[in-house]
Amino acid sequence: MTPATSVFGVLRRTTTPRLTRTFFTCQHASKSSATNKTTRRLIGSTASSRSGDGLLSRPPTAFGLTSLGSSLQSGGKSRVKFFPETSDKSVAYWLLGSAASVFGIVVFGGLTRLTESGLSITEWRPVTGSLPPRDASDWDAEFTKYRSSPEFKLLNPHMTLDEFKSIYYMEWTHRIWGRLVGMSFLVPAAYFIARRKVSAPMAGKIVGIAGLVGFQGFLGWWMVKSGLKDDLFAPGSHPRVSQYRLTAHLGTAFLCYTAMLWNGLSILREHKLLADPQAARKLFDRLKSPNLRVFRRSVGALAVLVFCTAMSGGLVAGLDAGLIYNEFPYMGTGLTPPKSELFSDFYSHTSDRSDIWWRNALENPSLVQLDHRILATTTFTSVMGLWAYTKLSPTVKKMLPAACRKGMHGVVGFVCLQVALGISTLLYLVPLPLASAHQAGSLALLSSVIILGGRTWVPRRAARLIQQRLAHSRSRICR
What we know:
By secondary structure, the chain is mostly helical. α4 runs antiparallel to α17. The N terminus is likely disordered. The longest helix is centred in the middle third of the chain and has 34 residues. The protein contains 18 helices and no strands.
């Protein structure tokens, strides 16, 4: 062997890596194997230490060794969860069905108000009042109670028993519907929670909605009670329920409906996103883009604006403010009534007139109608401006997902319909069909904005679950 050959052989042995068995061993597997060996040694030592007591014949689970080994492998963080990670789809369908029922009772409540039937039942009997009068004596007793009310004395002194029956059945149907909404929500809610069909956060939300439904029933009687006492309105004036209580009753119904609709849609969207975590992550990255920040915040502000406009409509209904200035866009000789009419001293209750501003804004029919017009015009302008922003901004037009664009188109359609219904209701002196459709349109417009928000806002909990699914998938690939 030549010297050159020997030198070359030495260099080859020193520079070439040695392919030992450890070179082909996965480091994660070796760590797992070491953990398993540690567990087996611990089990063996425990068993040998207790063999003298005759305990060796017991199965390993008798000493909790199975759970001990699993806790060692999971880092001691294993725990049993009472609620699942995601709610069942049946819960979503139940919530959406409850929302539809609330939508219907809101519209029917508007009809009860428009037909002046709300004060026909002068008592609140949640249990015994579930059945209507059965015979002539029962009807005479109910009619006698109604004849002692301010509404009969001032408005309906010539009402017959048959006419009373028609308004009585309207109010009775509204109350029975309310009880059915409560029972159809409380009983399934208890079942879904007991059967662990909902996640922990959703269980808390359902309990909150149930409390809101019960509070809504109390507000309904509190509102009716305000129209049965002479001391709650000026002597000789038109007997009506308090516009404050009416608006509170309407607002709580809107909140119940919105909560049911939002949570039902959230469950369905969560299932759809978890079905394809990779696509969901790409969608979230797109929605989280700074280029869509203005659009996301505008949708939230638009939802608040629509709700406030609907509540101002409740004040209009409570004061019968739609029966004055039945023209548009003018109010008398100008766009607004005279300042002396808008801020009249008549509505002030203090000697220094310190409450003249807010009293007129909430109790003066002229100013209340003007406020509703301003809010409605602002809502329409905001919707059309946001729609134009999605069309004229090249960045937003490129980044906005197709589902959000369709949702925006739906909001535009509903706001145009609602404006047309509102103007028609005013021009034709609040006819029953148009007024009822206008109230339903306000809830439909709010629904469209909520649906748009569900497609635009990134749900934090769903994003966290998707991140966990993707991390779990990567860990399985590594193994």
